[in-house]
Specification:
Layout: E1 2-7, H1 13-30, E2 33-38, E3 50-55, H2 59-73, E4 78-82, E5 88-92, H3 99-107
Antiparallel strand pairs: 1-3, 1-4, 2-3, 4-5
Helix pairs in contact: 1-2, 2-3
């Protein structure tokens, strides 16, 4: 299982929470990906604006397509996704045609 985390850039807490709830629901619909909402800051009253995803390697492709669709529906949203190796990539202003690039960023965030 690979572990990814998703945060919502500079979004205000209420917006980040709404994004987290919506994206968590969208990812759950993909199947085979375990999604947990948690607080980015344990001391805040945040409802859970940080998503933790656990998935197998084949599910990374589905996740990339799901993220592209969600980001297209939520234009202007910025997400930061951190992969199993601890490196992160920022995704913003993408379209569904960007899914292959998102997949590459998930697998290899720094293009190495």
């Amino acid at each position: 299982m690979q572990r990814f985390t998703i945060e919502f850039g500079n979004a205000e807490m209420d917006v980040a929470n709404r994004y987290a709830e919506d994206l968590a629901d969208a990812i759950r619909e993909l199947g085979e990906i375990r999604v947990e909402r948690t607080r980015a800051d344990a001391t805040s009253q945040d409802l859970g604006s940080l998503l933790v995803l656990l998935l197998g390697t084949p599910s990374v492709t589905a996740l990339a397509h799901g993220l592209a669709i969600w980001l297209r529906r939520n234009s202007g949203a910025t997400i930061e996704i951190t992969g199993p190796d601890g490196r992160s990539a920022v995704l913003k202003n993408v379209t569904s045609s960007d899914a292959p690039a998102i997949l590459q960023r998930l697998i290899n965030p720094h293009g190495e």
